[in-house]
Write a structure and sequence with these properties.
276 residues; f41 fragment of flagellin, N-terminal domain; 2 domains; two-stranded antiparallel sheet
Length: 276
């Protein structure tokens, strides 16, 4: 075995090993402090791309769920208003039924007609004034956009709520202006009111179906978010137990590396003993 002093190979090997250990130790400490095993593109370029793509999908799905919830809110507002309209129309049934009976005085007939007209005016007001987030509910189509951030995952669900007016419900202008003046007028109005009640029920059924559809969309999006979040965690999050084990390993290697470096430098000094 030759003895050399110009190049201490063992020292260079030990120094390189210590440098690599310290780099790994710094990476491990960063993973423990952030909870992520991918903190830069250098850590895992492919994994970072996958994790970022999953993050974009999750963001799109979360907002889509909110979009669907807003659509449900609009439809529920319309359904609540129509429920009130049904209550009002039931009052109109009572009034028209009473007016259809003979033997009423003129003042009684006028009072019933006035009350009936007020009911129709209230339906008109509900149709014109009901709004959601500053947007008119009746007579409007609000398109609910949902998607997962991919080209094939987008969908638009229209939420259509028909305009609400007495005439639109089948109560003719003649019914409103006649003021139930005769039993015959009252009977005609009663028939139209019953048709209006059926029309409101049908419209509420359509709205209910749309609410169910959007609710199903929200449930699907929530499940997708859970699954994608789990996948993102698997790609990006650090395994704390394994990383802690690595920390212990690199700490020991750093200490033994410094010891080896010190020993290799000490061996170089032993050469001087040969020339003393």
């Amino acid at each position: 075995m030759s003895i050399q002093v110009l190049n201490n190979i063992s020292s260079l090997v030990a120094e390189n090993a210590v440098s690599n250990t310290q780099a790994s130790l710094q990476t491990t400490l960063q993973q423990l402090s952030t909870g992520l095993k991918i903190n830069s593109g250098a850590d895992d370029p492919a994994g970072l791309s996958i994790a970022n793509g999953l993050g974009a999908n999750i963001a799109a799905l979360n907002q889509s769920s909110q979009n669907a919830s807003n659509g449900i809110g609009l439809l529920q507002t319309a359904d609540g208003a129509l429920s009130q309209v049904t209550t009002i129309l039931n009052q109109a049934v009572t009034i028209a039924t009473e007016a259809s009976n003979g033997g009423l005085t003129a003042s009684q007939t006028t009072a019933l007609g006035t009350e009936f007209t007020s009911i129709l005016d209230e339906i008109t007001n509900i149709g014109a004034q009901t709004n959601f987030n500053g947007t008119a509910v009746f007579g409007a189509t609000a398109n609910v956009f949902t998607g997962d951030g991919t080209a094939t995952g987008d969908a638009t669900t229209p939420t259509v709520v028909a305009a609400l007016t007495p005439v639109g419900l089948g109560i003719t202008a003649a019914d409103a202006t006649a003021d139930l003046a005769t039993p015959t007028d009252a009977t005609t109005a009663l028939e139209d009111i019953n048709k209006a009640i059926a029309a409101v029920a049908a419209q509420r059924g359509t709205i209910g179906a749309s609410i169910n559809q959007l609710t199903a969309d929200t449930n699907v999006e929530t499940t997708e978010v859970q699954n994608l979040t789990s996948a993102q965690n698997n790609v990006q999050n650090a395994d704390i137990a394994s990383t802690t084990s690595n920390l212990t390993q690199y700490n020991v290697l750093e200490q033994t590396g410094f010891a080896a470096l010190s020993q290799s430098n000490q061996a170089e000094q032993n050469v001087l003993k040969l020339i003393q």
